[in-house]
């Protein structure tokens, strides 16, 4: 319907759409050979138990360094990989790579309890997804309960009964499940108890809002209480400073991930953090 708008706006939208489409096409083409050219890497961000300062687990986050151009962030290329279906192959690579890295940590004696891998909507929908996960666990010799999959709230809720069934099959494999970006989608709170999640990741926006007035804090507290009641472990994502940390602790949330402790880092550096740990919050008073 761009054509129905006035002449000027037609041209304006046309140009912008053209630019976006061009960028998307370049990204799609670049992604096609990103695996064979070894342009993809995983970084890992620790999830810390704030009381002890120990690294409990970590989240794998993909990084793309295309030859000859600047790094492109996942927020830009993952949605395109989703649309084109490329995420299915890339997602397999990510899962295998994370499991292989985990094995390296084990052999070096510096493995956290688990590595969490993000699963996108398109990947999760793939009829072969559960078999792919099973195959990779077997091939890499990964102990199932050292693998966690992160699924966003929208994926879990929009795919409804099908999602509950599929998550159940994954749970049967013995792996852990985490509900990512909680609070950003439209969760029917009442149905949450029917999903076999182990942890619930409180979206960063709640951590930010909790500091700018009472409403945010109330929401955060309600989410933490609810997780407790549903026997889900709450993880706060995007913790950037000490006041956020202390506030979360006061509300009873003790597992956090964020720049305050560490940005996502290469696997060998994550191993060093696991061995060293962080300063325990309870130890300094
Ligand atoms: P996500 O799964 O919610 O990942 C958390 C994002 O928050 C990461 O961004 C991480 O770097 C960032 N973050 C962590 N701590 C902080 C903090 O303290 N402050 C701020 N401002 N940000 C923080 P990243 O790596 O750019 O990834 C963005 C999104 O892209 C992810 O959101 C996820 O949806 C997607 N993604 C990243 N890696 C993968 C992957 O391997 N597979 C799939 N399917 N999606 C991925
Ligand atoms: Mg995630
Ligand atoms: Mg998240
Ligand atoms: Mg998020």
UniProtKB/TrEMBL annotation:
Domain EAL, chain residue ranges per copy: 24-278
Entry's transmembrane regions: none
Source domain of life: Bacteria
Keywords: Phosphoprotein
A GO biological-process term: phosphorelay signal transduction system
Name of the protein described by the UniProt record: EAL domain-containing protein
Taxonomic lineage from the root: Bacteria, Pseudomonadati, Pseudomonadota, Gammaproteobacteria, Chromatiales
Residues of the full protein shown: 533 to 817 of 817
């Amino acid at each position: 319907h761009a054509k129905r708008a006035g002449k000027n706006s037609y041209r304006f939208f046309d140009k912008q759409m053209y630019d976006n489409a061009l960028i998307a096409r370049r990204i799609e083409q670049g992604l096609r050979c990103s695996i064979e050219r070894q342009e993809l890497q995983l970084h890992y961000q620790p999830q810390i138990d704030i009381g002890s300062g120990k690294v409990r687990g970590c989240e794998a986050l993909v990084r793309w360094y295309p030859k000859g151009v600047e790094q492109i962030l996942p927020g830009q290329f993952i949605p395109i990989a989703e649309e084109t279906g490329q995420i299915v192959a890339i997602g397999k690579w990510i899962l295998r790579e994370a499991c292989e890295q985990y094995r390296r940590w084990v052999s070096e004696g510096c493995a956290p309890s688990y590595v969490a891998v993000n699963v996108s909507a398109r990947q999760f929908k793939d009829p072969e997804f559960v078999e792919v996960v099973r195959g990779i666990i077997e091939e890499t010799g990964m102990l199932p309960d050292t693998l966690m999959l992160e699924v966003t709230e929208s994926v879990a809720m929009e795919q409804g009964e099908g999602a509950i069934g599929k998550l159940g099959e994954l749970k049967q494999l013995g792996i852990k499940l985490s509900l990512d970006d909680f609070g950003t989608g439209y969760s029917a709170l009442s149905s949450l108890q029917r999903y076999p999640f182990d942890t619930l990741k409180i979206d960063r926006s709640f951590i930010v809002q909790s500091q700018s007035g009472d409403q945010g804090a109330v929401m955060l507290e309600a989410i933490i209480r609810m997780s407790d009641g549903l026997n889900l472990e709450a993880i706060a994502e995007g913790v950037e400073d000490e006041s956020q940390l202390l506030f979360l602790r006061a509300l009873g949330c003790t597992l956090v991930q964020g720049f305050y402790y560490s940005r996502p880092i290469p696997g060998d550096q994550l191993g060093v953090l696991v061995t060293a740990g962080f300063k325990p919050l309870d130890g300094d008073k």
